[in-house]
């Protein structure tokens, strides 16, 4: 008989880790009963549950949470008897659902046969030989309710339908892989982990609108993604999956890569088109939309990587199957790049409608260093912050918008009590200021003025009228900027002002930073009662702002202090205060 | 390379999904490579050859647990399919010694457990 396998992990956060103790107790229990050869106990590093005390998982499907020492022997006895301890066992359902990432981490991204073995190119076959018409394909996408995963959430079928209806000799499909939001890397992972799915998605999009040519627009900072997509394209040509008469049908489709040179604005579709055409990457006014007049004047559909990775799944399983997942207005799943002050940073894919709390605490494992959560940020420089009071909001396009943020491409940055909202707003504003292409004045001047004002506040020179100014500039930019970059650049400021105006006011009126982040507002002091006069702080002070001697103690001259925080860090006796 | 035809795709679809042989997968996306997956991959390939173990060493993309890269997923007959995280050269060898050879799971490095249907 196979050995029974038992996994053990202490998931509690308040005490030092006890996994090893529980493991030892478990082994003892096994030995007492002579079961050490029939049961294998293993200490694991992650058991999929957090803050649930000691978790013991008995394969295949029994999991015990909050196990007390006294329960260990009961569990061992139950294993012997071959049934679960009823009053302790609970079953937990998996919260993640993998549609976009269905092949990521499963297939060898360079091996087309791996992809073929996992329903690869079955969808394009279905399109060419079963659905046969463009209308039917678009209808399937319409049924699925798929919306653009690049951020704005425009229904994919409508985009495709517009381009399909245009009469033109040449049409194009573009995959937007110019992922630029700080902290977001979902598209990179999909391109690197499952390039063939995106290629297949492109082919289906091409068929649906009547395009015979597609471009991957990938930023040059993603060399591995570029390599893998190029390899995927080459293999597809070799096997007759790209080129003329694909699978013996009359469908022809060619694919090529274009590299983005690292400008954030080139993720905006009109700027992206300009960049592919070899022109300067600046946006132009819409309409006309790219689906009417896009690349080289031809109707063009631009889809995000994640959107395209959904397409083969939808075609193969059917739009109605896809639409069963999600909320009323947002169907399917969303991939988030969970970063910031979170224990398990990484990619998560959850059904739309999952709450932020589930994502952060049940999947992400909670906050790093057991600090308190303050807010999460979604949508990158175009999004906003969502305070902790709204953690139970189900994530979908509309809900996030109501809260003043956006879904965005899927960056989710978790912030704890040490993060200063003025500093966050300033960070994003600087990003937009640097990335603004400068073509239209609302964005060029607006971002600069907002950044100046925020810097003023962070340096303790702010006035209360600055807040109104920020709001006025924000409104002007939202209304008058030419493209999405400028229109959404004020969002981080607007949303932090909406929820954390008091924090701004403390910076302005009290000249203090409650999170102790804004350097110029900090002051350091040595607490004589705690000081052991060891002189370590003085020796580490590069600005020579600390003076004194071993008899009289030390003092910090705030006029000389550059607020580097070194004295605070090196003092073992916590005798340096930071305020 | 032969061209793929519609018939060939039909055949693949009809065939029952092949039972996977024993394999070890190393996550080799940017996140994994940055954390040292290439060395792990090299170690595993060399050691398996040296010891003449019948197990395929494959590479794959990112499964999402980027904070504990490099990730190594192991599937051998008679053992649950598990993912080891924070794997370095030493842990890689430990996986071959303990998990593959002695059928004994390695402590403290398991980050994910897939329960195979056959087990249930």
Shape of chain A: flat
| Distance from first to last alpha carbon of chain B | 41 Å
CATH class of chain B: Alpha Beta
- Beta-strand share of residues of chain A: 15-25%
For the biggest β-sheet of chain B, the strand order reads 2-1-3-4-5
Attribute tags:
heterodimer; A: 579 residues; alpha/beta; Glutaredoxin; Rossmann fold; Ubiquitin-like (UB roll); 5 domains; 18 strands; 39% helix; flat; B: alpha+beta; five-stranded mixed sheet; 5 strands
Structure commentary:
The complex is a heterodimer of chains A (579) and B (120). Chain A is α/β, with parallel strands linked by helices and 579 residues long. Chain A folds into five domains: 87 residues, 3-Layer(aba) Sandwich (Glutaredoxin), CATH 3.40.30.10; 212 residues, Rossmann fold (3-Layer(aba) Sandwich), CATH 3.40.50; 84 residues, Ubiquitin-like (UB roll) (Roll); 90 residues, de novo design (two linked rop proteins) (Up-down Bundle), CATH 1.20.1440; 57 residues, Alpha-Beta Plaits. Helices cover 39% and strands 16% of the residues of chain A. Chain A contains 21 helices and 18 strands. Chain A has a five-stranded mixed β-sheet with strand order 2-1-3-4-5, covered by helices on one side. In chain A, helix 9 links the parallel strand 7 and strand 8. The radius of gyration of chain A is 28 Å and the shape is flat. Chain A starts with a strand and ends with a strand. Chain B is α+β, with helices and mostly antiparallel strands and 120 residues long. Chain B has four helices and five strands; from the N terminus they run H-E-H-H-E-E-E-H-E. A five-stranded mixed β-sheet of chain B has the order 2-1-3-4-5. In chain B, strand 3 and strand 4 form a beta hairpin. Chain B is globular and about 45 Å long. The mean pLDDT of chain B is 86. Classes of the chains: A alpha/beta (579), B alpha+beta (120).
